[in-house]
Design goal:
Layout lengths: L28 H30 L23 H36 L3 H4 L1 H18 L8 H23 L1
């Protein structure tokens, strides 16, 4: 290899490529369109949104606990009042779902107590076991044997029959 290198034959590329600047008398249409969009569309929408947020901040409304008004029971509905029947049925379904959740929460508490106490669960979780027994008995008394297709009318009839049996038992016990 020869010692004398020809640097002109193998030029090194420039480190920075210069950017060509366009200097014209015509403004850039993209900048013009952005400015028009900001003033015509974005500014009014932003103003209206901020105004609505200020109004909502004045009176907060929390959605996480919906409270339904209590409707008359099925036994309080007049004959032929189908709207009252429908509302009573919806109220009964909500009550049943609440009662199911109560049973589930008490069951979870008992499971957590058993997990926490280990071998001493019978001694230290007696209160939770008693509470679960009471809650499941109350649920079974009200909704047991209704099945999946149970409704407010069959539940009311079941309670009526249970009350009649209790009265018969009291009458037989007093004689």
């Amino acid at each position: 290899m020869p010692e004398d290198r020809d640097w002109e034959a193998y030029k090194v590329p420039p480190t920075r490529t210069p950017v060509s600047e366009r200097i014209t008398s015509v403004p850039n249409p993209v900048t013009f369109l952005q400015t028009v969009f900001n003033y015509v569309v974005d500014a009014p929408v932003t103003f209206v949104r901020e105004w609505i947020e200020r109004q909502q901040a004045k009176n907060k409304f929390y959605y996480y606990h919906q409270k339904f008004r209590r409707v008359p029971d099925l036994s309080e509905c007049l004959e032929g009042d189908y709207l009252c029947f429908f509302e009573a049925e919806a109220q009964w379904r909500r009550d049943r779902m609440v009662d199911q959740e109560i049973v589930e929460i008490v069951r979870e508490r008992l499971g957590a107590c058993k997990q926490r106490e280990g071998p001493n669960q019978f001694q230290n979780c007696a209160k939770e076991m008693e509470q679960l027994a009471q809650v499941t008995k109350a649920y079974q008394d009200r909704y047991g044997d209704l099945g999946v297709h149970g409704n407010a009318r069959t539940c009311l009839m079941k309670q009526k029959h249970r009350m009649m049996e209790e009265r018969k038992a009291q009458a037989n016990a007093s004689q």
